[in-house]
Design brief:
By secondary structure, the chain is α+β, with helices and mostly antiparallel strands. The chain has two domains: 9-71 and 215-249, Alpha-Beta Plaits; 75-211, 2-Layer Sandwich (Pseudouridine synthase), CATH 3.30.2350. The chain has seven helices and 14 strands. Strands 1, 2, 3, 4, 7, 10, 11, 12, 13 and 14 form a ten-stranded mixed sheet that branches. A two-stranded antiparallel sheet has the order 5-6. Strands 8-9 form a two-stranded antiparallel ribbon. The radius of gyration is 23 Å and the shape is elongated.
């Protein structure tokens, strides 16, 4: 039986063009309807852009306390990069704003630059079209109003980066696998790769294939999960609250026992 109040963790394959918040909202809506209760905690462990697909971890109830831990897991992405063109958002959310030569770039150059400049600890300036805060406001809200946005560079770690496919010299396209730390913006990585190659670049596709030990092949399609949530049995809200109360009492008893043992030890010493 599902117990979203005490806590569940769902691993979904987020669909294209859906926000992470929308996925969470749909799952929360199912719980509210089945439990007839509004205040059910649901959150995700790491935002995926609307134009990205792949692993999205959703936690409910008390297990939302694990979000920070789950977000810290190493991420793996497959990124599709187009050279010779840039966009303000570094992906296809916005229109191409400039073009650059790319015919000088070879696969050998790409592989050398990736290994020499994009492995290990690197500095990255997040995109203006991101949720990073600038003067207390999300940067993307300012960027969409045409305002200049200045964001400080952040240190992150790229564990692995490799070229899976290369369209050069016929087509200015790359498919790259990236294993990286929390906080990496693959859109910004595409920008930086383009600059390092003496050109420009932007993402035209992105898929998160792993978060920690959770792989995309083991995730549920969102529509399948929603169907399952409509057909599963649920622990009642009353019973779930009773379980939470008992768990809290047990934790209090354990703390009291530990404090008592510590006092006894102090007396002996």
């Amino acid at each position: 039986m599902l117990n979203p109040i005490v806590g569940e963790i769902f691993c979904i394959d987020k669909p294209l063009e859906m926000t992470s918040f929308s996925a969470v909202k749909q799952i929360r809506g199912r719980f509210r309807r089945h439990l007839n209760r509004k205040n059910i905690h649901v959150g995700h462990a790491g935002t995926l852009d609307p134009l990205a697909t792949g692993v999205l971890i959703v936690c409910t109830g008390r297990l939302t306390k694990r979000i920070e831990e789950l977000q810290a897991g190493v991420k793996e992405y497959i990124a599709w990069i187009r050279l010779g063109e840039t966009t303000p958002s570094f992906d296809m959310e916005t229109e191409v704003d400039d073009t650059y030569p790319w015919q000088h770039i070879t696969r050998e150059q790409v592989e050398r630059v990736l290994q020499e400049q994009f492995v290990g600890a690197i500095e990255q300036v997040p995109p203006a079209f991101s949720a990073c805060k600038v003067d207390g406001k999300p940067a993307y809200k300012l960027a969409r109003k045409g305002k200049d946005v200045e964001i400080r560079a952040k240190t992150l770690v790229i564990d692995e980066i490799e070229v899976l496919e290369c369209g050069l010299p016929a087509e200015p396209t790359l498919t790259v696998r990236v294993v990286c730390s929390k906080g990496t913006y693959i859109r910004a990585l595409a920008r930086d790769i383009g600059q390092a190659l003496g050109s420009g670049a932007h993402l035209y596709g992105l898929r998160r294939t792993r978060v920690g030990d959770i792989r995309v092949e083991n995730c549920e399609e969102l529509h399948a999960l929603l169907d399952r949530l409509d057909n599963e049995q649920y622990v009642s809200a009353e019973e779930a609250e009773a379980q939470l109360l008992e768990a809290e009492r047990e934790a209090n008893r354990a703390r009291a026992a530990a404090q008592k043992a510590a006092r006894r030890l102090q007396k002996k010493t």
